[in-house]
Amino acid sequence: MRISERAQRAQASPIRKLVPLADAAKASGVTVYHLNIGQPDIPSPPEALKAIREWDGSVLAYGHSEGQRFYRETLAGYYRGLGLDVNSEDIFVTTAGSEAIIFAMAAVADPGDEIIVFEPFYTNYNGFSSMVSVRLVPITLSVENGFHLPDKRVIESRITQKTRAILYCSPNNPTGTVYTRDEVAMLAEIAAEHDLFLMGDEVYREFIYDDGVTHTSVLSFPEIRDRAIMLDSISKRFSMCGARIGNIVTKNRDVWNACLKFGQARLCPPQLEQVAADAAYKIPPEDYIMPMIDEYRNRRNAVYEALKKMPGVRSFLPEGAFYTVAALPVDDADEFCAWLLSDFWKVEGLKETLMLAPASGFYATPGAGKNEVRIAYVLESGALRRAMELLARALEVYPGTKA
After folding, report:
1. What is the pLDDT of residues 10-22, one digit of tens each?
2. What are phi and psi of 140, to 5 degrees?
3. Which pTM does this prediction carry?
4. DSSP state of 331
5. Which among 23, 71, 302, 393 is most buried, taking Cβ atoms within 10 Å?
6. Rounded CA gap, 193 and 382, in Å?
7. Residue 379 in contact with residue 41, Cβ under 8 Å?
């Protein structure tokens, strides 16, 4: 029997593919510092968990395919508080940000059409595009300038008759880059001039750490009102990755109605999780989000300061999210990351090691990112510093480290 080409093309997760090696190390009594996956260790808001415990329904019934009205109204108020012109009719609630991206891709592109992305990008864009048979057209960015965008002509050179959209993420997963207003405005200009949709993945909106750095939403440009699509999620904002609640925001009724048809096919997004998300959005930022950002700023600084001291490592100070991509002085980062779990701790006589995500899986260009890793600084600062000490030692003893 033959499975589909779509299934054959689908990429295994670079974030999770080394899990068997990590499990084997743990079975040997080894502590593994997980810097491979963006799973926050910050407790979810107590108010959100309380809302679930105190839910007074007697039947957990189907809800509206577009999300419950009460939650969409709360979301609209949140976005208006950010200065964005959003009402509840512009919002479509999805089963996580993942479904938001899949629905958006499927709404704007047919099989064989193209969407421009900037690599390295969130690795699951590869999987999502495979599901809807859309081709990602990558534009490769560089650690040398902090993974900021190239000039307009470079982007326009990748537009073809099959191009339907540009997809970007800011603050960025996996690099931590925050695109400037001028950069996002350039993308908006290109979208308008070439009749493209512009899809902004804004999951890490609040995760910005330095004065003078600000987030610019794809919805900030009235001139692309009909072609702007925002993609969002509660997973990282409220440390609720398992709740699987995301959403799309668009003024384009055709796009919204397409998402409704897709959503009707899967019936509805999770119900109790919308109750929890609704409660989370009502928490004053100074009581939850702002202290969380302060904690991640300290973690960011701990990782960056350690990387700066490692010979041959090229990195930069990430401006947002809770990731950074670093170029290591190794011949193959995939092999190095596997070695960390299978051999490093044995060689050094240790009962601890670390797990990183090879960055090659965050690219669509074959061979790109071969010596890069993504580091998720989602552990408390003491654990992060120890993990960085282990990384520094590993680079000293790894057989594939370049002099």
Report:
1. 887 777 789 999 9
2. -80, 130
3. 0.96
4. S
5. 71
6. 49
7. yes
